[in-house]
Amino acid sequence: MTTPTPIFDGHNDLLLHLHAQGDHTGASFLNGRDGHLDLAKCRAGGFAGGFFAIYVPPEDRSGAARTAPVATDRARAVTMEMASILLRLTRANPNAIRLCTTAAQIDRAREDGAIAAVMHIEGAEGIGPDLLELEVLHAAGLRSLGPVWSRPNIFGHGVPFSFPASPDIGPGLTDAGLRLVAECERLGILIDLSHLNEAGFRDVARLSSRPLVATHSCVHALSQQSRNLTDRQLSAIAESGGVVGLNFGCQFLREDGQRRDDTDLGLMVRHLAYLVDRLGEAGVALGSDFDGALMPQGIGTAAGLPALVAAMQDAGFGTALIERICWQNWLDLLRRTIG
Ligand code: ZN
Fold first, then answer.
1. pLDDT tens digits, residue range 168-207?
2. How far is the CA of 228 from the centre of ligand 1 (A)?
3. 151 CA distance to ligand 1 middle (Å)
4. Across all residues in the chain, what is the average pLDDT?
């Protein structure tokens, strides 16, 4: 068997599931679980590292309630609990998975054959307006944060899920959101634009001196999801020397916006080629949304990542570009931002 191409991935929701199942040590990740990510699937597919998201789920997942604001006290508790699960899992099993806070630590984990996990927050509801929790979370290893998920909070307005629709829906960051961005810059926490609406995106672009990053987003010109990035947004990311991680979620890839897993991997390559065209070869990476979105059948789980690499090869992407998309671009970006 050939060794799969190592992948560093922009987004997964493993912690959400471990938390929901009461698996507070991550035993099911180590021993095998249904779902997109576990140790055996990661090893089989070359998944060698990524951003592991802390995300506060809605209390009611049905209809409009899914994107309703969540209560601060519950959000703070869930945020701390998910951070603790990641800390427990990585501290107890450093040869399998390691919490990393620098690019050098990620390189070292890869050399040692351990998965590199970067702690990420998707929606900062667990942080209050005085931002005190941020200091603790940074000390715990947090290095990436999206101020909002696709719902409003005290920091801003997430882009609602809508198709076909522009991401230019609703107002920009609040005063607390502007302070949050400034504080993340001071601490060396990357700001993720993936669930922001366009006004919020513009606020971060205006405020931030760092490369702009969307950890798990697709191309609006190819699939008119409100969650996808318009050419204008891609230009801003390109100007900043930033990176976009391609979301594998079928509804974000497809021209018809449908959540159907008979989605061709060639379509993923079309999104990647479009991103390379707009961002250059240094600006494109992967952001699977494993355990958070419906995967194309051709990939299925982390074990199926080599099929995406093969699709890139079939489309004529060279080895150097594939290595950039799969690993190097995220690492270079992290080296330039968190250190
Ligand atoms: Zn997301």
1. 999 999 999 999 999 999 999 999 999 999 999 999 999 9
2. 11
3. 11
4. 97
Residue 1 CA to ligand 1 centre (angstroms): 33
**Does any domain span residue 211?**
yes
Residue 20 counted as domain residue: yes
- The pLDDT tens digits of the residues spanning 64-94 come to 889 999 999 999 999 999 999 999 999 999 9
The pLDDT of residue 1 is above 80: no
Cis peptide leading into 129, omega within 30 of 0? no
2 in a structural domain: no
Picking from 110, 112, 115, the residue whose alpha carbon sits closest to that of residue 99 is 115
Altogether, the residues listed in the chain come to a count of 339
Place of tokens 């035993």: 27
Is residue 264 in some structural domain? yes
CB 300 within 8 A of CB 252: no
**2 alpha carbon – ligand 1 mean position (Å):** 32
Lowest mean pLDDT among 65-74, 295-304, 307-316: 65-74
Please give the distance, rounded to the nearest whole angstrom, from the Cα atom of residue 38 to the centre of ligand 1: 19
| Cα–Cα distance, 284 to 329 (Å, whole number) | 7
- Beta strand pairing call for 142-146 and 213-214: unpaired
**What's the number of domains the chain is made of?**
1
Tokens of 143: 């290095």
User: Residue range 279-299: average pLDDT?
Assistant: 98
Structural domain containing residue 293: 7-337
Please tell me the chain's helix, strand, coil percentages from 3-state DSSP, rounded to the nearest 5: 45, 15, 40
Determine contact, residues 322/276, Cβ cutoff 8 Å.
Answer: no
Q: Evaluate if residue 260 carries a pLDDT over 90.
A: yes
Q: How far is the CA of 289 from the centre of ligand 1 (A)?
A: 7
What is the C-alpha separation between 273 and 278, in angstroms, rounded? 9
CATH of residue 304: 3.20.20.140
